[in-house]
Fold this protein.
Amino acid sequence: MGRLLVFVEHKDGCLKKISRQILGYFSNTGGENDFEITAIIVGDSIEKKIINETASWGADEIILVEDKGLINYNPLILVQAITEIIRGKNPQLVLFGNTALGKDLAPRLAQVFSRQMVSDVIDINLEKEIINFIRPIYGGKAFEKIEISSNNLTFVTVRPNSLESFVNCYQTPKVHKHHTQINDNLPYLLKEVIKKAAEEKSLTEAEIIVSGGKGMQKAENFKLLEELAKVLGGAVGASRSVVDAGWMPYSVQVGQTGKTVKPKIYIACGISGAMQHLAGMSTSQVIVAINKDPDAPIFKVADYGIVGDLLQIVPLLTEELRNMYRE
Amino acid sequence: MKIIVLVKETFDTEAKILLESPNNISQKDVKYIINPYDEFAIEEALRIVEKFGGEVILCSVGREDSQITIRSGLALGADRAKLIVSGATDSITVSKFLAQSISQEGFDLILAGWVAIDDNNAQVPARLSELLQIPLVNVVIEIEISEDKIICRRDSDDKIEIVETGLPAIIAVQRGINEPRYPTVKNILQAKKKKIEFLYMEKIKEKVNINISYDVIQSKRKGLLIDGSSPQKAVTILVEKLKEAKVL
Ligand SMILES: Cc1cc2nc3c(=O)[nH]c(=O)nc-3n(C[C@H](O)[C@H](O)[C@H](O)COP(=O)(O)OP(=O)(O)OC[C@H]3O[C@@H](n4cnc5c(N)ncnc54)[C@H](O)[C@@H]3O)c2cc1C
Ligand SMILES: Nc1ncnc2c1ncn2[C@@H]1O[C@H](COP(=O)(O)O)[C@@H](O)[C@H]1O
């Protein structure tokens, strides 16, 4: 029997999808490695709703780190608190989402303990004494398979939408509080938090992404993609050429030097499929490409492609889907 | 101001990834570049020094031949470089070597890329901040330096965080922070005369309980092409297919 520590992220009173995915995956894949799952929830005042939801995804134990000083993210405070919890619990795995928070905290903690960290994993397999991780490297052009014996403390960040999660029956976890001494004189001070525009938010968590490239021809044509995304309940992304041209903000750039996404459907419109673009989206579940050039490299990685003019095809696709949902 | 910029040599983004064996990625005929995020770090360092005066020192753990890549960083305007030659590529050892040589050198500020595009680890800056016990501000898209403090804008998924820290610190930068310059002919010529200090460090063989192997992506995609000369028909087929695939 080993122990897993899962850092739970929440927003607006709900767990983030990635946290549900990690909890759900491990509470159902115990297998031969029967893990006890300890969830850590941090906040200035943690709602009951969040605790219940964490329990419903299979946490055996919940540790609340609650303090007014935690209203805003400060890595130094969280590293201290989680370090204390790890020392007390001796877990084998400490898991985070590969989110802004996980990417920042996990490597700091890994170094506090001088241990391995496995970043941005897309698959985890538990065997008897070994844990297997798969993660994309070289912009998704290759995959690294890492086997680590399961009795070592290892830090992990999991790419959103990678692990299949199942709704678990409610556990009645022990809930307790962990108090950490907050030093007011830290050399890292969060001065201000600025929310991004709503349309920029959802890219990494979006289930469907409609992305446009240079083939969109001008900024105004992105309206077509916004309409399509709206019908599908998805988000709009872009290639770097589009961002460089100033048609869309950098925050929606997909690719090696942009966001890495893994939606259920990725629809690439007027995107040639340069390696640096593929780096950001090649692990999507289903890839659709619309391009007028039948030899465009994007078709080599697509599940479904339409060879044609996107200015004609996109509006028709929006209409077709609108009709489908209406029925 | 004495600024250290961490520079990692990576495969060119166009490079084809081939395996020599399941445990070895081939380096044959590979073109190398400076990790693109580190170019932003170099540019930012140059701008700071142009404003406040000082020195920009590139620091890298790599191969003997990495000096060619490092030289291209000097051609952008950095003053000199330290190249730690070692077989190590894992984040723990690389960070340890960097920490050793950087603390010997001394510094006011360290700039790095937030992630390397080859190993996709995003670990070295954080590890270094723990080893050197200096604050790290991660994924930074704007830096403003004054007398005694640094204000950073940091990209944090759906938010921008404005963080204040002091010197010394390590800042890991994200694209958007600046537009890197191109080397001038004069700088390229000067770079040939700039000093690269070589340090040789041996990786201590640890009892490893970790096994790493690689797989090169083969597209397992369906690759169905639909003729779009009748757009309406094509769209209907596509929606059918997506329904069949159970993603709609
Ligand atoms: C270090 C580095 C990092 C990079 N990082 C990224 C990154 O993060 N993300 C990224 O996207 N790129 C990145 N790039 C750039 C990348 O190499 C490509 O230049 C870029 O992705 C091309 O964008 P595109 O596909 O929109 O444009 P293009 O390559 O110009 O393709 C446009 C496509 O639109 C099609 N088209 C034109 N008109 C129509 C029409 N009416 N209907 C249908 N199709 C049409 C064309 O057939 C063509 O295939 C990077 C490059 C480098 C060197
Ligand atoms: N071998 C190395 N030598 C110098 N700097 C490095 C090295 N590896 C990583 N870095 C720095 O750390 C950043 C993140 O790299 P990584 O942790 O490998 O994703 C890079 O952008 C570099 O600035």
User: Anything to note?
Assistant: Chain A touches chain B through 84 residues (CB under 8 Å). The first strand of chain A starts at residue 2 and ends at 8. Chain A has a mean pLDDT of 93. The two ends of chain A are 51 Å apart (CA to CA).
